[in-house]
Design a protein that fits this description.
The chain is an alpha/beta fold. The chain has a single domain (about 5-285), classed as LigB-like (Protocatechuate 4,5-dioxygenase, Chain B), CATH 3.40.830.10. It contains ten helices and ten strands. It has helices at about 15-20, 30-35, 40-45, 100-110, 125-135, 165-180, 210-220, 225, 230-240, 245-255; strands at about 5-10, 50-55, 70-75, 80, 95, 115-120, 150-155, 185-190, 265-275, 280-285. An eight-stranded mixed beta sheet has the order 6-3-7-2-8-1-10-9, sandwiched between helices. A two-stranded antiparallel sheet has the order 4-5. Helix 1 (about 15-20) packs across helix 5. The protein binds 3,4-dihydroxybenzoic acid and fe (iii) ion. The site of fe (iii) ion has 6 residues, from loops.
């Protein structure tokens, strides 16, 4: 059977992708940020999964106000990097895993979560920046991401957005789905977006280091309690775009301890301010 071996959590700031693509990663502004991901790149090389289930949000790139799925699972064979206004990022295409994705869709929908099935989708910085941070710079033609990726898009852009509690429950359903897949695949689940940031309105530029670090503490040690945090607290404390953090609870809900297993091992923790308008947080937890 397939199993979830680890979860990875990371911010997805688009300027990080631009800094990598334009070769600015050694500049003084960016160097401390990329230094924080050096252990992670090594960890991923040492712990290469068969599939990454990547929870992310689309930023009105693949979806628009025409169509707003709350939870959408990518079942396609491949996904192209999206053009976000400056051309597509020069990164490899994303290869999917239609067989496992279709199985997870079947299982999770039968567990009463109404997923949208997506057979065609371009992927924006929400998905490509976490991959770049964890895998380093790759040639768009010669290079390839280390394994197939199942994109799982969550609406955290257009209100109403799902609650942290719902996301945490969904992660538990995804774990059961993976564990009922009849192939011995090593699956990692990644939760991305966040941390505190607000890109708009009177509080644009808001960053709340204390709240972010408390979020990291609780994600590690008290995920069920953290899942009770209300939507309004995210917006008040972490800014309007800080709500992206509910996606981390999907990945956390899929870890073994939530289903009665042993507590995960913390392999890496990193927090850095600022990156563009955003606080960057990052964790690696192993089952
Ligand atoms: C920024 C952060 C985001 O999460 C995003 O999607 C776009 C921009 C920023 O910090 O500039
Ligand atoms: Fe974002």
């Amino acid at each position: 059977m397939a199993r979830i071996s680890a979860s990875v959590y990371t911010s997805h700031v688009p300027a990080i992708g631009a800094a990598m693509d334009l070769g600015k990663d050694h500049e003084p502004y960016w160097q401390p940020l990329f230094a924080g991901y050096e252990p992670s790149k090594q960890w991923l090389k040492d712990n290469k999964p068969d599939v990454i289930f990547l929870v992310f949000n689309d930023h009105a790139t693949a979806f628009s106000l025409d169509m707003i799925p709350t939870f959408a699972i990518g079942t396609a064979a491949e996904y192209q990097p999206a053009d976000e206004g400056w051309g597509p990022r020069p990164v490899p295409k994303v290869v999917g895993h239609p067989e496992l994705a279709s199985h997870i869709a079947q299982s999770v929908i039968q567990q009463d979560f109404d997923l949208t099935i997506v057979n065609k989708m371009d992927v924006d910085h929400g998905l490509t920046v976490p991959l770049s941070l964890m895998c380093g710079k790759l040639d768009p033609k010669e290079g390839a991401w280390p394994c197939p990726v199942i994109p799982f898009a969550v609406n955290v852009v257009q209100y109403p957005v799902p609650s942290g509690k719902r996301c945490f429950q969904l992660g538990q359903a995804i774990r059961r789905a993976v564990e009922s897949f009849d192939q011995p695949l090593n699956v990692q689940i990644w939760g991305t977006g966040g941390m505190s940031h607000q890109l708009q309105g009177a509080r644009a530029g808001l960053i709340n280091k204390e709240w972010d670090n408390r979020f990291l503490d609780r994600l590690i040690a008290d995920p069920a309690g953290l899942a009770e945090v209300s939507h309004i607290e995210y917006v008040r404390e972490a800014g309007s775009e800080g709500i992206e953090l509910v996606m981390w609870l999907i990945a956390r809900g899929a870890m073994a301890d939530v289903a009665g297993g042993p507590a995960p091992t913390l392999k890496h923790r990193f927090f850095h301010v600022p990156a563009s308008n955003t606080a960057v947080g990052h964790l690696i937890l192993e089952n």
